[in-house]
Design a protein that fits this description.
- It is a single chain.
- The chain is an alpha+beta fold and 373 residues long.
- The protein is built from 11 helices and 9 strands.
- The protein has helices at 7-17, 21-27, 32-40, 59-72, 74-93, 96-106, 218-254, 266-294, 300-326, 336-347, 354-371; strands at residues 112-115, 131-135, 138-148, 156-163, 166-173, 179-183, 196-206, 256-257, 260-261.
- It has a 4-stranded antiparallel sheet, with no helix packed on it. Strands 1-4-5 form a 3-stranded mixed sheet. Strands 8-9 form a two-stranded antiparallel sheet.
């Protein structure tokens, strides 16, 4: 999709990342100046409308750019996903003043994370125990959030909790009194994405920090935010597959055994064919989902779940295939295929595990059978 209005930004991103992703992975940190520079140009949440300082990119074009970032560095793409989820949640649930304020900040260099999961609320987010209690003109937030991507870099954290028996999202400054952020030590995937535990102890904020004043069904709040995260992760998996295909293809073409290039060995050629098929299938299902969002199709929710499921499954399988082709050449920390293998497995777990996706898709098939579609 070379006609993408983000093509120039993609080329710049390639130049800025260069060969640094391996070192970022080993060190477990992304350069904050890079994140803020990308954020200030609206590239971390490209779909934010121009009226709020964003680029107003379509889901298709944003997805294309997300896949490109994912092919370079999944940790960087994970931060992009978090920023986009935060912006999406604010855009959907915030009032006019909140959208102007918070979205303007997220397209001007501030960084954000979204805090859903808790020690006892992973796949079952209905068990969220974080509370947002009204106290005069303020609210007081208490709770603990775990495995929060990008929290280590965030200026703002969109925290999901319970207020007056309903779901709510409150925007919490990371430097607010009572907020503690502790990095997850040595995560297995997306090591530099700033995964953290976020503890909130009597965090007092003005009522204006509650998006839309609160009072949203928790399931709707979570489903809406996860929709953006799922399609972003799906496109990121396309990027993982493209990186693996490029690395495996180059290695097989240039590595000779018995005077014959690996690519000319039928069993290795089969691996390359399977990897190409996975990349193409993931790309097409993501394009379908993004077009559904751009067209406001009633299929968009199921199409997004399908894209996330197909792409993450393909990325996990395809990265394993790339490891098999490269063998010991990829068996070192930081190598693009070694990173892809670890990162892809994490993609099968986040934003709704693959098992959750299967349950949703199975439920959809029952609807189709019952309606005769």
């Amino acid at each position: 999709m070379s006609e993408s209005p983000l093509a120039a930004a993609a080329a710049e991103l390639t130049a800025r990342v260069g060969d640094r992703a391996a070192a970022w992975d080993v060190d477990g940190r992304l350069p904050e100046d890079l994140l803020r520079a990308l954020g200030a140009r609206g590239l971390l949440c490209a779909e934010v409308p121009a009226g709020y300082g964003g680029l107003g990119a379509s889901s298709v074009h944003s997805g294309w750019f997300t896949a490109h970032a994912g092919s370079l560095c999944s940790s960087l793409r994970s931060v992009m996903t978090s920023q986009g989820m935060a912006a999406w949640t604010i855009q959907r649930f915030g009032d006019r003043a909140q959208r102007a304020d918070y979205l303007g900040r997220l397209t001007s260099g501030d960084l954000a994370a979204v805090a859903f999961s808790e020690p006892a609320a992973g796949s079952d987010l209905s068990s969220v125990a974080t509370t947002v209690r009204a106290d005069g003109d303020d609210v007081v937030v208490n709770g603990e959030k775990v495995w929060i991507t990008a929290a280590a870099y965030a200026d703002l954290i969109v925290v999901v909790g319970e207020l007056d028996g309903l779901g709510t999202a409150v925007v919490v400054p990371s430097n607010a009194e009572g907020v503690t952020i502790e990095r997850v030590p040595h995560p297995s995937g997306c090591r530099a994405a700033g995964h953290s535990t976020v503890r909130l102890h009597d965090v007092r904020l003005p009522r204006s920090a509650v998006l839309g004043g609160g009072g949203v069904e928790l399931s709707m709040l979570i489903t809406t935010a996860l929709a953006y995260g799922r399609i972003s992760v799906a496109w990121g998996c396309v990027g993982i597959l493209r990186a693996c295909l490029a690395a495996a293809g180059a290695h097989a073409a240039n590595r000779y055994q018995g005077g014959v290039a690996l690519a000319d060995r039928q069993l290795v050629a089969r691996h390359l064919a399977d990897l190409y098929a996975d990349e193409q299938a993931a790309t097409r299902v993501c394009e379908h989902a993004s077009r559904a969002w751009d067209e406001r199709s009633p299929e968009r929710v199921v199409a997004t779940v399908l894209a996330k499921y197909v792409s993450s499954t393909a990325a996990a399988r395809g990265s394993g295939t790339a490891v098999q082709v490269l063998a010991s050449a990829a068996a070192q920390d930081g190598h693009v295929v070694a990173r892809a293998h670890r990162d892809a497995k994490l993609m099968e777990l986040i934003e709704g595990s693959n098992e959750i996706c299967q349950l949703i898709l199975a439920g959809h098939t029952r609807v189709l059978v019952n309606t005769g579609d």
